[in-house]
Specification:
- The protein is an all-alpha fold and 86 residues long.
- The protein is built from five helices and no strands.
- Helix 2 packs across helix 3.
- The longest helix has 12 residues.
- The radius of gyration is 20 Å and the shape is rod-shaped.
């Protein structure tokens, strides 16, 4: 196994959500070569999704938007319910 192949496998192991293109840029090779190396080592070439964030109150378990994640930390329905309680 070449040094470049080892770097590709190590990078993918440490960054499972990385795209083929970003791996290629990191190890200075093409995304097609990255795909071939992963395929020959029986590693999925599909990009894993980042995990979704859920509402903090835990009751409704709605998925939060990026804005909600950063600012309110709760979904719209929980936020409305909180406002009505106050």
């Amino acid at each position: 196994m070449t040094e470049v192949m080892e770097r590709i496998l190590k990078y993918k192991e440490n960054n499972p959500t990385a795209s083929l293109r970003s791996i290629g840029e990191a190890v200075q090779t093409s995304h097609e070569y990255v795909r071939l190396v992963l395929k020959t080592n029986n590693i999925s070439t599909k990009r894993m999704r980042r995990q979704s964030s859920y509402c903090c109150n835990g009751v409704c378990s709605n998925i939060l938007s990026t804005y909600q994640k950063r600012h309110t930390k709760m979904c719209t329905s929980c936020r409305k319910a909180k406002i009505l309680k106050e």
